[in-house]
Design brief:
mainly alpha, 2 domains, Arc Repressor Mutant, subunit A, elongated, Tetracycline Repressor, domain 2, 219 residues, single chain
Length: 219
């Protein structure tokens, strides 16, 4: 019996082939189901419609990230960056399929609109996570960080989708730069036993993060 994940992958690949060869609007659900070797009822159990086939990976990723962010994390800022890396790594596993899907989305207005909404859902997930993980964080800091991480992620991912070879390290460096700009990138130097500690924080660091670090050291 075919695993549900393999089944979804096969249907998505068949749909992308049809969308690319004959257009999104001209492709019917029946044609996709036939090409994928599944029944029409099986298709609708797995997907709600043609649009859902294109965005099924994002739905699965959003569920995965919610579960990941619900776990304990010592550094919420780093957790958001790790979530971004998970999304990038997923699409980098099969860049050719991701690129073909990207071309279809660019050509179909209804898909472009849905993509905008999908990007916002990632941003909102990160924003809500930071607000819940950092009590007292200024809303502008939470939404600003979430928006910047999402924008940087999409900028790097688009390079991959346009045919460039982009290792995940490129994204990691960009995310580190975002954390550095916010003053929340930890220093790499290891403390010595006889260190004299003077608390100095970057002016750009959110107050909630200063409070979190002080509390962590005192606990």
């Amino acid at each position: 019996m075919q695993h549900p994940t393999e089944l979804r992958t096969g249907v998505v690949a068949a749909a992308i082939d049809l969308f690319a060869s004959q257009g999104f609007e001209a492709t019917s659900v029946e044609q996709i189901a036939k090409a994928a070797g599944v029944s029409r009822s099986t298709f609708f159990r797995q997907f709600g419609g043609k649009e859902d086939v294109v965005f099924t990976d994002h739905e699965a990723l959003l569920d995965e990230l919610r579960a990941f962010l619900s776990e304990p994390h010592d550094d919420p800022w780093a957790a958001v960056c790790a979530a971004s890396e998970r999304v990038f790594t997923h699409f980098a596993r099969d860049p050719e399929l991701a690129r073909r899907r990207y071309e279809i989305v660019r050509e179909v207005p209804v898909l472009r609109d849905r993509e905008i909404v999908t990007v916002f859902r990632y941003e909102r997930l990160f924003d809500e996570y930071l607000r819940g993980s950092l009590p007292g964080i200024a809303p502008i800091d939470a939404v600003g960080f979430a928006a910047l991480i999402t924008a940087v992620h999409n900028h790097v991912l688009r390079q991959l989708l346009r045919g460039r070879r982009v290792p995940v390290s490129v994204l990691q460096e960009a995310l580190d730069d975002v954390r550095r700009r916010y003053g929340v990138l930890p220093e790499t130097a290891q403390p010595a036993d006889d260190d004299v500690v003077v608390a100095v924080f970057p002016r750009s660091m959110p107050i909630a993060e200063i409070s979190r670090r002080v509390q962590a050291q005192l606990s």
